[in-house]
Write a structure and sequence with these properties.
The chain is of the alpha/beta class. The protein has eight helices and 13 strands. Strands 1-7-6-4-5 form a five-stranded mixed β-sheet, sandwiched between helices.
Length: about 350
């Protein structure tokens, strides 16, 4: 009698949602006082999507979840997990449970994972491990959503590296013993020296007594010392990106055999440096210049669009990677297409 196949977890379907309103590089230039060609060339963004005041983080997440579910009955979900922005509809509430309820996932538990912009990549490892350990977790829905354009002040030059934020959401339907897009290995690097470099400094337990006097600057993402962060980050970031990507592939048994990179948003020059270091071409990735940085959704959007463009194909070894202020770099390898 043949042995049972080794348990595995696959991504049954990836989907994303972005709001219809567009803010062009011209808009960002006018609002920030930075020339348009600098926004496009140095910042790497041609346009971004902007959610209106009536469209919340949960609304975008719900739409991405519905698209990822396809024809699966939400009642068959065992778990719904949110891994998006910590800027949510409300302060200190369970957005995962909210979306699960609206989705009709009546039999699912729900919780959240937070690691800023690397969380979408890292959460694939967390949920894969849970699903392999617990046979009752067969259908799991992971989603991310971000409306961080609200908390990035384009007039604050200290936060200019975040002017590329765009709004949007993405979701992944994960299946135990899935038949396609098998999740392989993950690698993360954490450097806690950067933990407090970026924050909304006016909100939190340190400043609870001052909430009634917060102005826009104190309610927005900010950098304590941009020059210091750049001085410390620039020498290590490219190496850490390349390291986590290469290690995720090698740990999966595909050392030096990457076919497609699904990146976090970054300008072409930095992405080009990563591709060159790994011996890859631009045709083996997807540049997110028309989306902006949708937090943890970036790599998922890149996979969907890369597949549409014929760059990500069945049989490819795809590596999804991201980085989050704090600072973490993470990558997860996925064997794309039908399982071997």
């Amino acid at each position: 009698m043949a042995a049972d196949p080794k348990p595995r977890v696959g991504i049954e379907r990836l989907a994303y949602y972005v709001p219809p309103e567009i803010q062009t590089s011209e808009y960002i230039a006018a609002a920030s006082g930075i020339p348009r060609d600098v926004i496009e060339q140095k910042f790497g963004i041609k346009q971004r999507h902007k959610a209106g005041p009536g469209e919340q983080v949960s609304d975008m997440g719900l739409e991405a979840c519905r698209r990822a579910l396809g024809d699966l009955d939400p009642g068959k979900l065992d778990l719904v997990v949110y891994c998006g922005s910590e800027y949510k509809d409300y302060y200190l509430y369970n957005l995962a449970a909210h979306v699960a309820e609206r989705l009709g996932a009546r039999n699912a538990n729900a919780f959240e994972i937070h690691s800023l912009c690397s969380c979408g990549v890292w959460s694939l490892k967390v949920l894969k491990s849970m699903m392999l350990a617990d046979p009752e977790l067969r259908n799991v829905l992971l989603f991310t959503s971000s409306k961080e354009t609200d908390v990035v002040d384009l007039s604050n030059q200290r936060s200019r590296f975040m002017f590329n934020f765009g709004d949007g959401a993405a979701a992944a339907l994960l299946r135990r013993d899935g038949e396609r897009n098998i999740i392989l290995e993950t690698r993360m690097i954490t450097d806690g020296r950067f933990a407090a470099d970026v924050a909304v400094y006016g909100v939190g337990s340190r400043n609870w007594h001052r909430l009634d006097s917060l102005d826009r600057s104190q309610r927005s993402l900010d950098l304590a010392d941009p020059a210091s962060m750049k001085e410390r980050l620039d020498p290590i970031s490219l190496g850490n990106f390349c390291s986590v990507v290469a290690d995720a592939a090698a740990r999966s048994g595909y050392e030096g055999k990457i076919d497609f990179l699904a990146p976090i948003f970054m300008k072409r020059s930095i992405l080009g440096g990563i591709l060159s270091n790994l011996g890859l071409r631009e045709e083996q990735t997807f540049v997110l210049e028309d989306f902006g940085h949708c937090q943890s959704a970036d790599a998922y959007i890149a996979c969907v669009e890369g597949e549409k463009a014929g760059r990500l194909k069945d049989g490819d070894l795809a590596v999804l990677f991201g980085a989050g202020t704090g600072y973490t770099w993470a990558a997860t390898a996925v064997k794309w297409g039908p399982a071997d």
